[in-house]
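For reference, the entry.
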Amino acid sequence: MIKGKKGLSFILAILMVAALTACGNSSQGKESEEKDKDIAIGQISWAENIAVTNMWKVILEDKGYNVKFNYLNMGSTMTALESGDLDVSLEVWLPVQDANYLEEYQDTVNFSDETWFDEAKVGLVVPTYLEGINSVEDLNEHKELFNSKIVGFDPGAGTMEVTEQLIKDYDLDFELVPSSEAAMLAEIKKAVNEKEPIVAPLWSPHWVFSKYDLKFLEDPQNTFGGVEKIHHATRQGFEEDYPEVSKWFKNWKMNNQQISELIDYVESSEEPADGAEKWVEENQDLIDEWVN
C-alpha cells in the first residue's frame, strides 16, 4: 500500500497520465474516423462530368462524407488514381474512347465492370444546315469550307486521340486543333449564329444538342465505335476502404432523360452544386435506389 502525500501524488499522476492517454486515443480515433470520411473525386471540365460529380458530392455529403474535387484532365486523373492521390473518377468511356487508358492502367487502377450510362455516342458533328455533308468521307471534298480544321477540345482526352486516328483512317487533309470544351462550344455557337461551317468532335449526352441543330457525321469505318458505355474508376483499395460508397457507385444507373435534365439543372444554375442539389431533391426515389 502506498501511504502519505507522496503516495497520493503518485496515484494522481497515474490518473492524469491515463486520462491524457485516453483523450489522445479518443482524439486520434476521431481524427481517423473523419479522415476515413474524406473522398477525393476527379472533376474534368466537361458538361456531364461537372453535373455528375456535383450530384455525387450532394449525395455523399448528405450521407456524412466530406467530398473534395481535384480539377484534372483525363491523363492526370489516371495518374492520380494510380498513385492513390485521387479516390474516384466518375467517367470512363468504353469500349473505344478511353480504351488507351484501360490498356495502360488496368493493372494499377480499378475500372468498374458496372456502367452508369449505356446510350452514349461520340463522333464528328456539323450543323444540320450543311445538307451536303453527312459523312466523314465528305469532308475532304469540302476542306476549303472548313479551312481544313477540326475544332477540338482538351488535349489528352480519349475522344481527341480517337479523332486523330480518324484523320489517319480516312486520310483527311485536316488538322485537329485542341483547345477546351468551353472554347470549342463558343466556336460552335458563333458558327451556328452566323450560319458558318464548322466540324468538331462531340458526344451525347450533352446539352449542346438541345440548343443547336447539329448532326453526327456517318463513320463507315466505325473509328469512333458504336454505342459507348460510361463506367467509373477508383484507386486500388477504395472498395475495401469505402465498401458502402463502392456499392452505391455500382448501383448507379441513369437514362438519357435523367442525365440530360441533370446537366440542364447544373448548367442553368449560378453554382453547379445548387443545380445538382435541386435535381437530387426532385429525384430522391431514384437516388434511394442507388444508396439503399
Q: What stands out?
A: The longest helix spans residues 4-35. Residues 121-216 form a domain with the D-Maltodextrin-Binding Protein; domain 2 fold (CATH 3.40.190.100).
